[in-house]
Amino acid sequence: MNNACSQHAHPHRLVQQPLTELTDRLRAGSRKVTGQREAILDVLRRHASPLTNREIHAALGKNDCDLATIYRNMHTLTSMGLVKRFDFGDGAARFELLTDASDHHHHHLVCNQCSAIVEIEDCFPTEYEEALAKRHGFTAVTHRLEFFGTCPRCQKSTAAVDPTIARPS
Amino acid sequence: MNNACSQHAHPHRLVQQPLTELTDRLRAGSRKVTGQREAILDVLRRHASPLTNREIHAALGKNDCDLATIYRNMHTLTSMGLVKRFDFGDGAARFELLTDASDHHHHHLVCNQCSAIVEIEDCFPTEYEEALAKRHGFTAVTHRLEFFGTCPRCQKSTAAVDPTIARPS
DNA sequence: CTATTTGCAAACGATTTGCAAAACA
DNA sequence: TGTTTTGCAAATCGTTTGCAAATAG
Question: In chain B, N or C: fewer CB atoms in 10 Å?
Fold first, then answer.
């Protein structure tokens, strides 16, 4: 995927926490600290935007490991809370490192043209969500919210967008 | 997928517009009115919640047609604006009939346990979205928003939920 | 009659899984 | 050493596509 514009990502997400802190979290969860896991976590550390398994695999370079290993580890890391999974509706899951508790819930603004991703702090108002849950008798209600549009850089080009892809109107 | 609770769906979406009105829209788009298309549209007409291609296929019963035909037609119908595609993050696209312009934008509340789907009118505040777009220099910004939780019926049972699936925290 | 549409089978891309070898603790 | 993790290959699942036959207008 072409992430040419991804440098627009909000700087606050580029905070790199030390790798040792991450491996410690692995040990705390009684998981083994393997070279593959370190390499994967290291790739995630240095990326502000969520990456697909394939992108992680490509970014591993020298520390290459099997794609299946990445898939398995993203499951593990997600269930351990080290990583969060996002879906942009294009058929590939994306994963982002959770640096701290405050990162556990946020959203994205994705360019329909070049797939640039901007981290967003805006969120659906809690009070609305609570009212909505109560109204329908649901409990433990959460939401998935992602924004799509045309990024500044792509506003000049005139590339067509596939109208059948799941971009809400 | 188990949609046992789907009768919770908001009644306003059960409005069934005549099949002829739909086929007319096909003709208006210079598309042929085939038996398969009529059958597919008829299935969508009588369902309040979005259906997967497989669910549509199963619902066709006697008027069975090839799955590939359904996939191709959902593309066609989506690009014609007769149908809208939704993604709940479980890997299967869902489609819902658009009865009128007011239906072009709405959201869902999905039960994590039984996949019951409730149609939701609540939406992310337009002014927030506009501010967000301006702040990041994006144009033509839209959003995808879906809610997840535990439906009234499932609040009694104690089924575990896969923590690795993309349900935002 | 002619462009569209369909059925069938094969192809695809993302993801998962079985199993034996390799590696952490 | 005993359990977890990895690599490899095969399997799965949703979806797409090539192509010849069927069909709507």
Answer: C
Give the residue with greater pLDDT, B156 vs A8: B156
Nearest to B138 among A105, A149, A169 (CB): A149
Single pTM value for the model: 0.86
Which is higher by pLDDT, A18 or A43? A43
CATH number of the domain located at residue range(s) B103-169 in this protein? 3.30.1490.190
Residues of each domain in chain B carrying CATH 3.30.1490.190: 103-169
**B17-101: which CATH number, 1.10.10.10, 1.25.40.10, 1.10.540.10, 2.30.40.10?**
1.10.10.10
Mean pLDDT of chain B: 87
Instruction: Judge whether B105 is closer than 8 Å to chain A, CB to CB.
Output: yes
Chain B hits for A125, CB-CB cut-off 8 Å, are 125
Q: How far apart are CA A42 and CA A97, in angstroms?
A: 10
Report pLDDT digits (tens) over A27-86: 999 999 999 999 999 999 999 899 999 999 999 999 999 999 999 999 999 999 999 999
Lowest mean pLDDT among A8-17, A69-78, B10-19, B127-136: A8-17
**Strand D, nucleotides covered by protein (CB < 7 Å):** 4-10, 13-18, 23-25
- What Å value separates CA B162 and C1' C18? 22
Say yes or no: A25 contacts chain B, CB-CB below 8 A: no
